[in-house]
Amino acid sequence: MADQQARPGEDKRPSEIPVIRWEEPPEGPVLILLDQTRLPSEEVELVCTDASALVEAIRSLAVRGAPVLGIAGAYGVALAAARGFDVDEAAEALESARPTAVNLSVGVRRALAAYRDALAATGDPTAAATAALASAQALHREDAEASARMAAHGLALLDELMPGGGHRVLTHCNTGALVSGGEGTAFAVALAAHRVGRLRRLWVDETRPLLQGARLTAWEAARSGMAYTLLTDSAAGSLFAAGEVDAVLVGADRIAADGSVANKVGSYPLAVLARYHHVPFIVVAPVTTIDPDTPDGASIEVEQRPGFEVTEILTPQASAVGGGGGVPLAPLGTQAYNPAFDVTPPELVTAIVTEEGTVSPVTPEALAALCARSRATPTA
Ligand SMILES: CSC[C@@H](O)[C@@H](O)C(=O)COP(=O)(O)O
């Protein structure tokens, strides 16, 4: 079950946006999410008391973006365990809530493994629930740390590629604090450049159809005080042609073993434009987004979203899952093609920036070496 409660909208640094948190009131543990479908007009929290409410929140994009989906999935397992639900069933429902972002299943599986190990060791479901929660909290902390390290590596790369500073960066979708335990992935790099006075402008693609750029990235950019300009996705071409873009920074939902990058639909056209205009196309993602079990781009499952997201303008009150209810943009009955993501082949990616360092050029061998380095670091 999920309840909604409004919270006052005082100004905060992006890192202080309370995207997701665990609380234990007397009625029992809850997972509290900032409902991203209501931004930027309202800051409303969604209180999940069970995993099925969280599954619904994930499908409706109340919580979204690869790293935080992993964190949410892990807390979802902990919630099911703490509330005495069937943990395996909850884990399965959570893992399959959205197919493309690999972080979701990484987070769910990690908390589930912690739960099962503790149950096997102690036979005590309460101890197992505590272990699942500790695992989710560790993932949450690690993501914040990874975010800071990605920002540092990404800023170093921007400075290396453009030693003069004054970076004009184009970004797509939303990759800031709203998707992370920290300040995000691609947006965190732009924020780091802004803080040291080297970001001249952040170009923000509106990101049709659900407007994560306009609603969320512009909201985060405004809070950070950086210079930013919103554009329609289709205006990116003329912006490149005018020589106004020095680099493209995007996140990723899944990176295949060959370096193919699944990210919000519209990323691939930006990569093609960037190549044509000799502009670096940089992907920023934690190592958990690299999926060694997915060999190539063709093997990535791309989520297909309902057509009404394209044929209607959804108001915050209209359900993004249950079927329309928004303002019609197209004649009734119009069919829509609505993949949530597209896949950029590795040859169009200048670099992949992770918390473990930067891979450039992007090759299967370099990615495998990075993953091996990361696996050598123990996790909770
Ligand atoms: C660091 S976030 C990377 C991606 O998850 C992000 O760019 C994206 O595509 C999110 O899509 P969404 O459908 O809003 O979950």
TrEMBL record:
Catalytic activity as recorded in UniProt = 5-(methylsulfanyl)-alpha-D-ribose 1-phosphate = 5-(methylsulfanyl)-D-ribulose 1-phosphate
Q: What is the enzyme's main class?
A: isomerase
Site positions (Transition state stabilizer) are: 173
The GO terms this record gives for MF are: S-methyl-5-thioribose-1-phosphate isomerase activity
Sites where the protein binds substrate: 64-66, 98, 212, 263-264
Gene3D superfamilies, from UniProt? Answer: translation initiation factor eif-2b, domain 1, Translation initiation factor eif-2b, domain 2
EC number of this enzyme: 5.3.1.23
Does the keyword Ribonucleoprotein feature in the UniProt annotation? no
Q: In which pathway does it act?
A: Amino-acid biosynthesis; L-methionine biosynthesis via salvage pathway; L-methionine from S-methyl-5-thio-alpha-D-ribose 1-phosphate: step 1/6
Q: Which domain of life is it from?
A: Bacteria
Q: Does the keyword NAD apply?
A: no
SUPFAM superfamilies, per the entry: NagB/RpiA/CoA transferase-like
Q: Which GO terms describe its biological process?
A: L-methionine salvage from methylthioadenosine
> Which keywords fit this entry according to its UniProt record?
Amino-acid biosynthesis, Isomerase, Methionine biosynthesis
Q: Which residues form the active site?
A: 253 (proton donor)
**Which NCBIfam families does this entry report, sorted A to Z?**
eIF-2B_rel (TIGR00524), PRK05720.1 (NF004326), salvage_mtnA (TIGR00512)
> What is this protein for, i.e. what is its function?
Catalyzes the interconversion of methylthioribose-1-phosphate (MTR-1-P) into methylthioribulose-1-phosphate (MTRu-1-P).
Q: Which family does it belong to?
A: Belongs to the EIF-2B alpha/beta/delta subunits family. MtnA subfamily.
Q: What is this protein called?
A: Methylthioribose-1-phosphate isomerase
What is the scientific name of the source organism?
Streptomyces bauhiniae
Q: Which gene encodes it?
A: mtnA
